[in-house]
Sequence to fold (123 residues):
Amino acid sequence: MPTNSRLGNRATGNCALQTALAATCQKLGLIYRRVSTDGCWHTLAPINGTLAVAGRAMLFEDKKAGVVLNFMSGQRLAFFAANATVAGRKEYAQTLHAQKIYERKRREALDITRVLMRLKSTP
Fold:
């Protein structure tokens, strides 16, 4: 994968993590884009659909794992760089600290979705 020199090493993360992110995005029906490993949510567009934003991805700062949410389907998947494969929700929930971070970020994402839906329905 090409690197984005403007973002530097911190932003591009490691290749295995980006590969796992790409596989997870494809599985959830979202368009993959390279995101930084800053622990923040980044928007993702749907493969099929009219919405500009259909999901979000977050890569943890330790560059070992991340999570992808698809707002349209309600699906969420965690993934790990160690094996560059998608891991299920049960594996992700094994770490209590990661689960707390996930729930807080999920609530933030749902709040953003609610605001966007209200703006969309306002004439």
In short: The first helix runs from residue 8 to 12. The chain has one domain: 8-121. The longest strand covers residues 65-70.
